[in-house]
Please model this.
Amino acid sequence: MTSFLDFEKPIAELQARVTELRETADSGPVDIDAEVARLQAKSDKLLRDTYARLTPWQKTQVARHPERPHFRHYVARLIDDFMPLAGDRAFADDQAILGGLGRLGGRRVMVIGHEKGDDTASRLRHNFGMGKPEGYRKAIRLMQLADRFNIPVVTLVDTSGAFPGVQAEERGQAEAIARSTEQCLALGVPMVAAIVGEGGSGGAVALAAANRILMFEHAVYSVISPEGCASILWRTADRAPDAAEAMKVTAADLERLGVIDRIVPEPMGGAHRDPAAAIDMLGSVIGDALDSLSGLSPDAVRADRRSKFLAMGAL
Model:
């Protein structure tokens, strides 16, 4: 892990000192193992203490960390025999939303999710995970295919929101998002959604209207970004930390409100510090969620999903 967030500067300074001392030890006869161990222990404690009291805005920064695992990483580690399926059969293949068939722990699944990309070139290719209408129509096509062959659907949500460009609006962005949400709710097969990073606006809900909604400990899920909310309420994005606090974007808040069903723990310091462990933990929790829904009839699956969403916000 090479990128530290603004609030992690004290940790970065300690880690830099540890690295410097280790390089010194490698190049000379001086034994400084004890000092290295002391500084590493201090750094680890500072990391634990920092992540134990993250503010909603700091969690938003963690959720956006560029080194968090993305869709392709989850598929590579969790999904066997993955067969990607492309295109909406109407306009184009949107690289911001990917999907295909595979096996999760031996169980056949249709997996769909947002892909943000890992570097500049891939981020541009995947449009930073901001889906266009053809991406949501591809998701609809894949969900319908899964429904036809009685295959559970797993979605991995990580987007700041659907693409807001003029061309996307001309091609029916709002309608595509609404139809995708409708298709989630209409599925006769179990659907499990996981918020793995950012869950932004309708672009996230369109893949997350599921029977079970899981959420990483340091992910965020909201109707608008904190910056967007601050710009509307206070006419300045500088109030984003205040907006994040008021919007209840964290996993703990959303579990308490009944919006999500389960919080998935992350490795200490966030999923970006140990992607393999984070991915394995999520795979296990998804498996548990699918097990809890197995054996239900299509009508029972729909009723389960319907009751879940109707209960949200009830007094």
The mean pLDDT is 93.
